[in-house]
Amino acid sequence: MIMTHPGLPLYWAYAIGMMMLLLGGLTMALKPAKHSTSRTISLAKLPLLGGLFRFLVKYTWPLLLLKVVFSALFITVITAGLWGTPIVERNLATTLTWNLWWTGIIIAIVFSGSAWCAVCPWDNIASWLVNHSIWRRSNSNSRLQLKLPNSLRSLWPASLLFIGFTWLELGIGIVASPYATAMLALLMLILATTTLALFEDKAFCRYICPVGRTVGAYSQLSPIALRPIDSEICRKCKTLECFHGSDNIAPCPTKIVMGRLQENTYCTSCGNCTQSCPSSNVSWQLRSPSSEAIKEAKPHLDEAFFLLILLSLTLFHGLTMLDYWEGYLSTMAQMINDSGQLIISFSIGLAVTLMLPIFIYCLALGLTQGLLKKHLKELVTTPSFSKLFSGFSFVSLPLAFSYHIAHNLTHFVRESSDWISLLANPLGTGAEPLSMMEKHMRHMEMMVSENTLFVMQGAVIAMGFIIAMLVIRHRGQRLFAAQGIALLPMILFAALVTGFNLWMLVQPMTMRM
After folding, report:
1. How confident is the model at residue 436 (pLDDT cuts 50, 70, 90)?
2. Angle between helices 178-198 and 61-83 (to 10 degrees)
3. Which residues are CB-neighbours of 338 under 8 A, at least 6 positions away?
4. Higher pLDDT among residues 330 and 399, named by residue
5. Cα R_g (the chain), whole angstroms
6. Helix, strand or coil, per DSSP, at residue 508
7. Euclidean distance between CA atoms 479 and 38, whole angstroms
8. Domain ranges for the chain
9. pTM of the predicted model, to two decimals?
10. Separation CA 317–CA 302 (nearest Å)
11. Would you state the pLDDT for residue 379?
């Protein structure tokens, strides 16, 4: 028997729908916003919390301690997955990976930006193995320092791996297999270690890791980021230790000059710049949420495609946890004579869900381009389709992020595990499967009340649409001189995606495990 979670009440969908109509109209009606500079506040200068952030920036051992803790948990996950019980809900490998880590990491981005990348065990264990150094700059000659081929110097490797992960997670069902979960974790560690040993810098983090690129994309909506305290100091700096490193501190792993940093995308929050800067001019900053997505970031074509693929795969995760999905698989399997695990039927569903949002996005862009040709004066050159594609791609980011959080909140709140028992017996030795009564009690004993969960989900979805409208308004008006009716196609795209997200949230959702 498959248990399901109740969906979001319909009145939330109606209320958000009314808000969408109002905001869509305002977006078309309002005049272009005046140019404004985003304000930031150094967390190191806050009255109460400032001391804590100064401490974290000054000393290396707190971050090193977190790296060791997460690496130890990672090794425990592999051990539990390879040699522990196959009972999915009794094994720490599956519960920690899918119920806590992958759910919590998305929610944590709101409060910590790209900080996960700083403690990521894939990169840290790979660095310790290859560089033979725990923290300081390595003098080891164990790396070949080859240049990464130009064909891989984009986000397409991360995009393809993300699609492959989704296929393994939902099609093959590694979520329900502790052994498969551990093997996937080992595979990523081997890939990170091999890439670090062969190529210069950290090509794995910059171009290949789907988790890191997802965190990097979403962190552009975070109010937290590493930035210069005084931009004037950075402008006068000639040595660029933040980029080159110092005698003891390694250079920036993703080749970022802090004084020119405008996007969180490739910042891994590793702390190298905070330690190497001779003026101690780098710290965590509190800024206007989503300022990057609205106006500051300038994505390339591969980055734009990654954002749209991220949106498509986020929608696909939601679809596969609805009752309708099983009906689709059965119907498709009968049509094409698919049997067994219905992998072919699943793959067709994944491909269609992957391409359909991108096709609708391109259709909206085509209509936008046509309206711009009609309304712009002859002296103004109509922007090319590729520029529109890249410029408006950030519309998809808050739509994906808001649904991703709302969806994960259900798992996080409703599928809590007995973590004390799991940590005491991570391999699940001698454990029995959860009874239906135990599953029912876990469902009833939520971390917060059901109404509180609905409020959080509704607020997140509404905020996602609000940010999407700000993106459309600013980027449309400032980049492409689009106003009024010319913004309508992109507004309809955002409304269609948000409406679909709401429809999925209203439906009962199957439990992960």
Report:
1. low
2. 130
3. 332, 344, 345
4. 399
5. 24
6. coil
7. 18
8. 40-135+150-292, 300-417+434-510
9. 0.92
10. 22
11. 44
